[in-house]
């Protein structure tokens, strides 16, 4: 099975074209966040999403947690997928299905311990995919992605085995470790931001090396 690759923190059309040209299956467009790299304004997200060919998924990363606010954010940005990076209640998913039935819903689970396995199982029933990341709710400011940290891949593997929905693996992935991550976790897809960037910009050489490592794994 081909492992899907999602390149996150896309900042403009040039980065989108580079990522797609080098084989990305999906692009992550980061809205307003409490912390982390890559946020861009909604107008830029809309422009990039409208530029991307239909075969490539466009993920809006939103920190909104109320269904009306999430739906409004997606409506402004016109992406085909929404990635919810914070925790929400189950009734939010149901409301979003009613409000935007053609938009895929991906829920982020930040893998912090064995409790994350239960959390992933709980949300998987209501979403189209689960994305495992290395954020944290412990500090005074939530870390909801883009930390550049890995987490315990054995827990991620348990989640892949426990849920029936596609699972994306994120968190500290780079060209030199993504092969090990794929072999350890067996995810549907991998997702990264900082691991293929230099001075904040998407780096073609690093992305080529990353794609080659994914293919080899």
Chart the SSEs and their pairings.
Blueprint: E1 4-7, H1 13-21, E2 26-30, H2 42-51, E3 57-62, H3 67-77, E4 81-84, H4 90-99, E5 104-110, H5 115-124, E6 129-133, H6 153-162, E7 167-169, H7 178-185, E8 189-192, E9 197-198, E10 201-202, H8 204-216
Parallel strand pairs: 1-2, 1-8, 2-3, 3-4, 4-5, 5-6, 6-7, 7-8
Antiparallel strand pairs: 9-10
Helix pairs in contact: 3-4, 5-6
What CATH architecture label applies? Alpha-Beta Barrel
Mean pLDDT: 94
Which CATH C-level class is it? Alpha Beta
Q: How widely separated are the two ends?
A: 11 Å
Shape: globular
Domain count, please report it. 1
CATH superfamily: Aldolase class I
Rg, Å, rounded: 16 Å
Sheet with most strands:
8 strands, parallel, barrel
- Strand arrangement, largest sheet? 1-2-3-4-5-6-7-8
The number of helical segments is 8
- CATH topology type: TIM Barrel
Number of strands: 10
Strand content: 15-25%
Low-confidence stretches: none
Helix content: 25-40%
Along the chain, the helix and strand elements come as EHEHEHEHEHEHEHEEEH
Q: Helix/strand-derived class?
A: alpha/beta
Short recap of the structure:
This protein is α/β, with parallel strands linked by helices. It has helices at 13-21, 42-51, 67-77, 90-99, 115-124, 153-162, 178-185, 204-216, and strands spanning 4-7, 26-30, 57-62, 81-84, 104-110, 129-133, 167-169, 189-192, 197-198, 201-202.
Question: Can you walk through the features of this model?
Answer:
This protein has a single domain, classed as TIM Barrel (Alpha-Beta Barrel), CATH 3.20.20.70. It is globular. 37% of the residues lie in helices and 19% in strands. It has helices at 13-21, 42-51, 67-77, 90-99, 115-124, 153-162, 178-185, 204-216; strands at residues 4-7, 26-30, 57-62, 81-84, 104-110, 129-133, 167-169, 189-192, 197-198, 201-202. The longest helix has 13 residues, at 204-216. The protein has 217 residues and is α/β, with parallel strands linked by helices. The strands form 2 sheets. It has an 8-stranded parallel barrel, surrounded by 6 helices. It has a two-stranded antiparallel sheet with strand order 9-10. The protein starts with a strand and ends with a helix.
């Amino acid at each position: 099975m081909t492992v899907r690759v999602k390149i996150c923190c896309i900042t403009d059309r040039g980065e989108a074209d580079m990522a797609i040209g080098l084989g990305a299956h999906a692009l992550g467009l980061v809205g307003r966040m409490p912390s982390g790299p890559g946020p861009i304004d909604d107008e830029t997200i809309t422009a990039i999403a409208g530029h991307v060919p239909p075969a490539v998924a466009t993920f809006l990363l939103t920190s909104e947690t109320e269904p009306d606010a999430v739906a409004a954010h997606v409506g402004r940005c016109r992406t085909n997928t929404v990635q919810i990076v914070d925790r929400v209640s189950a009734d939010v998913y149901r409301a979003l299905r009613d409000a935007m039935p053609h938009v895929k819903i991906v829920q982020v689970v930040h893998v912090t311990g064995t409790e994350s396995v239960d959390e992933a199982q709980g949300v998987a029933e209501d979403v189209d995919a689960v994305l495992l990341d290395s954020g944290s709710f412990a500090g005074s400011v939530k870390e909801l992605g883009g930390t550049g940290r890995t987490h315990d891949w054995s827990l991620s593997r348990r989640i892949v085995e426990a849920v029936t929905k596609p699972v994306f693996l994120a968190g500290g992935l780079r060209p030199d470790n993504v092969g090990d991550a794929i072999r350890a976790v067996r995810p549907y897809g991998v997702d990264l931001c900082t691991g293929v960037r230099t001075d904040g910009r998407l780096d073609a050489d690093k992305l080529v090396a990353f794609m080659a490592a994914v293919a080899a794994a």
